[in-house]
Design brief:
Blueprint (H helix, E strand, L loop, with lengths): L3 E6 L2 H12 L15 E3 L5 E6 L4 H6 L5 E5 H7 L4 E6 L5 E8 L3 H9 L3 E6 L2 H11 L2 E6 L6 H4 L5 E6 L3 H5 L2 E10 L1 E6 H6 L1 H16 L1
Parallel strand pairs: 1-3, 1-4, 7-8, 7-9
Antiparallel strand pairs: 2-3, 4-11, 5-11, 6-9, 6-10
The structure holds phosphoribosyl ATP (PRT) and magnesium ion.
């Protein structure tokens, strides 16, 4: 039987996906706490897990190096979903993509976005940011960052940011407030479309089992 590979990212997706996988009988064979292994065997001989960066999960699945993956909807919307089937929205890694502004500059945001002036927006998400502000008819100077996005408006690098909000603690600690919701986000099971066609039995079985524990 052909082996299936499931791509996961370390951190919250791995931590929250493993209990779901455990519920459908998939357990890791070795303790990974002190391991640097990137390919993990499971108790199912025909399923292995690979650990990649969150942004790389759809890449592995798109090219078929992994038939299955769990990726944030933010990452999928940003990269596009060509060649990828998205059968289940999982109740994990839930958060929302929002526009946030400094608490003491809310009036500036309202004026800038209404007067046809250019708005400086820092984010990890160029495509989602540009789509959002294009719909509002706001002119944008986009500043691409790779992390600590919350710092941008505090240092004068940008007027506002587009970033993920979960508990709201990070925004609060940095004097930012949500001004607009762009999209609710959660992790998605993703499947390589070609693999689904040619290896449909084990892949569909996996999807059915996972769907059952998600909906129970
Ligand atoms: O961290 P790394 O650079 O390796 O990659 P990554 O940040 O893409 O991965 P990771 O594991 O942090 O996030 C993976 C996925 O989890 C994201 O793509 C989202 O789909 C989802 N997710 C859910 C989140 C959050 N919640 C979240 N809160 N991703 C990031 N955050 C960050 C957010 O960017 C902000 O800095 O947490 C901070 C806000 O959290 P609160 O609780 O203070 O509001
Ligand atoms: Mg992170």
């Amino acid at each position: 039987m052909q082996t299936l590979t499931l791509a996961l990212s370390k951190g919250r997706i791995f931590d929250e996906a493993m209990p779901l996988l455990n519920k459908i009988g998939i357990h890791l064979i070795h303790d990974i706490k002190h391991s640097r292994k990137l390919i993990l065997a499971t108790c199912e001989e025909t399923l292995k897990i690979i650990l990649v960066r969150a942004q790389d999960v759809p890449v592995y699945v798109r090219y078929g190096a992994a038939q299955l993956g769990i990726a944030g909807l933010d990452v999928l919307l940003e990269q596009g979903c060509e060649g990828i089937y998205q059968p289940i929205s999982l109740p994990i890694a839930q958060c929302k993509l929002v526009v946030a502004a400094p608490k003491d500059k809310l009036a500036d945001y309202a004026t800038l976005s209404q007067q046809g002036r250019r708005l400086r927006v820092a984010s990890k998400y160029p495509r989602l940011t540009e789509n959002h502000f294009a719909k509002k008819g706001v002119y944008l100077d986009f500043i691409k960052l790779y992390g600590s996005i919350e710092l941008a408006p505090l240092t004068g690098l940008s007027d506002v940011i587009v970033d993920l909000l979960e508990t709201g603690q990070t925004f609060k600690a940095n004097g930012l407030v949500e001004v607009e919701l762009i999209h609710p986000i959660s992790a998605q099971l993703i499947v390589n479309q070609t693999a689904l066609k040619f290896n449909s039995v084990p892949i569909n079985a996996f999807i059915q089992k996972l769907r059952k524990v998600v909906h129970e």
